[in-house]
Specification:
Pfam families: MMR_HSR1, YqeH-like_C. The protein is of the alpha/beta class. About 25% of the residues lie in helices and about 25% in strands.
C-alpha cells in the first residue's frame, strides 16, 4: 500500500497505535480519499480544538530532536513531574542543550500536600537537577491541570527568552502538552483566537506555535522512559499511579521484619533497625497492605491480582516479577519506586536502617534526599 503522510506535520499515517506519531482512525483515512486532505489525529485536534496532544517517539528520533535544540539559540523549558522527578528526567539533557539556558518547570505542584512549602520544593528540584548535571537559570512550580502559576510561567519565559525561540521538552506523562494548552488558553483569554494558519505544523518531531515577534514556541513529543511503572500497566490501571489530586501521606509504625505491599506493584521490607515510622507517598486509590516479612512471599503468591491489585488476576502471567533491591539508609531519605511513589525512611547515622525494596523487573528503584 502506498505510504500516506499527514499534510499538517509530515508524519507517516498509521491506524494501529494512538500513542504514536501519525495515528489516524481508519475511517478518517477512507474519508480523506474523497476530500484529498489527510491529517493525523494530533493535527486534526490542533486545527479544530486548539488542543495539543502528546505523542511518543523512538529514542533515536528523540536524540535527533535534542541535537536540533542544541544547534539552535533558544530557551529550553524542561518540564518535569514533581511527583516523579527521577522518572521524568531526560538523561544527559545538559549535554544536548549545549550553551542554551534551561528553565526547569516542576509540574503537578497540586499533588503534594499543602503543608509543603513551594520554596523548599523549588530548592529540592534545583539540587536534584544539579545532581543530573543540569544548571537551570531558574526553577518554577506549576499545575497545568489546575492552571496554577501559568501567568507567572508565561512572564518568566518572556523574561528569559529575550526574543529567542522556546523549546518545550519533557518525557511522556509529565503534563507537557497540558501545560502548553494552559499557556495558550491564558494568552488567548479562553477565546478561539489561535487559528489553523498560526500552527504551521512542521515535521513529525515538533509543532511550532508562532509568537508575536516572529519567534516560536516548539512543542516536542515526549520520550517514554522504560523504567517507569506506567510502561507496564494498562490504561485502566494508570489511575492507581497517576494522582489527580493532593496525595494523602500514610504513616506506618513498623517493627523490624515487617512488610508493606503497594497493591501488587511494589513491596517494602523493613529488615533491621529500631521500631519507627515510615511515611508512604502514593496515589490515594492504591491499597497499601501490611504483613510479616516471614510470610511475605507466600502472601504475594496467594493474593496478587486479588487483594493486591493492580495488576488484575488475568494480567499476572504477563506482568513482570518483583525484583529485590537492598538499601542501607543512614540519613533521612526517600526510597523511590519510579513512576509509582516513594517511602520516606527517617534513618540516622547512629541508627542505620536496612531495607529491601521490590519493584517489577525493569522498573527503577533508588534512594534520594527526602523531598518532604
Amino acid at each position: 500500500m502506498e505510504k500516506l503522510s499527514c499534510i499538517g506535520c509530515g508524519a507517516e499515517i498509521q491506524t494501529e497505535n494512538k500513542e504514536k506519531a501519525g495515528y489516524t482512525p481508519a475511517a478518517s483515512v477512507k474519508k480523506a480519499e474523497e476530500t484529498g486532505e489527510l491529517y493525523c489525529q494530533r493535527c486534526f485536534r490542533l486545527r479544530h480544538y486548539n488542543e495539543i496532544v502528546d505523542v511518543s517517539v523512538t529514542d533515536d528520533d528523540f536524540l535527533k530532536l535534542l541535537h536540533d535544540v542544541g544547534d539552535s539559540d533558544a530557551l529550553v523549558v524542561n518540564v518535569v513531574d514533581i511527583f516523579d522527578f527521577n522518572g521524568s528526567v531526560i538523561p544527559s539533557l545538559s549535554r544536548f542543550v549545549a550553551g542554551n539556558d534551561v528553565l526547569l518547570v516542576g509540574n503537578k505542584k497540586d499533588i503534594l500536600p499543602k503543608s509543603v512549602k513551594d520554596s523548599k520544593v523549588t530548592q529540592w528540584l534545583r539540587e536534584r537537577a544539579h545532581e543530573e548535571g543540569l544548571r537551570p537559570v531558574d526553577v518554577i512550580l506549576t499545575s497545568a491541570q489546575n492552571h496554577q502559576a501559568i501567568k507567572e510561567l508565561i512572564d518568566k519565559i518572556e523574561l528569559l527568552r529575550q526574543g529567542r525561540d522556546v523549546y518545550v521538552v519533557g518525557v511522556t506523562n509529565v503534563g507537557k502538552s497540558t501545560l502548553i494548552n494552559a499557556i495558550i488558553k491564558e494568552v488567548s483569554g479562553g477565546r478561539d483566537v489561535i487559528t489553523t494558519s498560526r500552527f504551521p505544523g512542521t515535521t513529525l518531531d515538533k509543532i511550532e506555535i508562532p509568537l508575536d515577534d516572529g519567534s516560536c514556541i516548539f512543542d516536542t513529543p515526549g520520550i517514554i522512559h522504560r523504567h517507569q511503572m506506567a510502561h507496564y500497566l494498562t490504561a485502566k490501571q494508570l489511575k492507581y499511579i497517576s494522582p489527580k489530586k493532593e496525595i494523602k501521606p500514610k504513616t506506618y509504625q513498623l517493627n523490624p521484619e515487617q512488610t508493606l505491599f503497594f497493591g501488587g506493584l511494589g513491596r517494602f521490607d523493613f529488615r533491621s533497625g529500631t521500631k519507627q515510622s515510615f511515611t508512604a507517598y502514593f496515589d490515594n486509590s492504591l491499597n497499601i497492605h501490611r504483613t510479616k516479612l516471614a510470610g511475605a512471599d507466600a502472601f504475594y503468591a496467594k493474593h496478587a491480582g486479588g487483594l493486591l491489585i493492580p495488576p488484575a488476576e488475568k494480567e499476572l502471567e504477563t506482568f513482570p516479577k518483583l525484583v529485590r533491591h537492598d538499601f542501607t539508609v543512614r540519613d533521612k531519605a526517600d526510597i523511590v519506586y519510579s513512576g509509582l511513589g516513594w517511602v520516606c525512611v527517617p534513618a540516622k547515622e547512629d541508627q542505620p536502617v536496612k531495607i529491601s525494596a521490590w519493584a517489577p523487573e525493569g522498573v527503577g528503584l533508588m534512594v534520594r534526599k527526602a523531598l518532604i
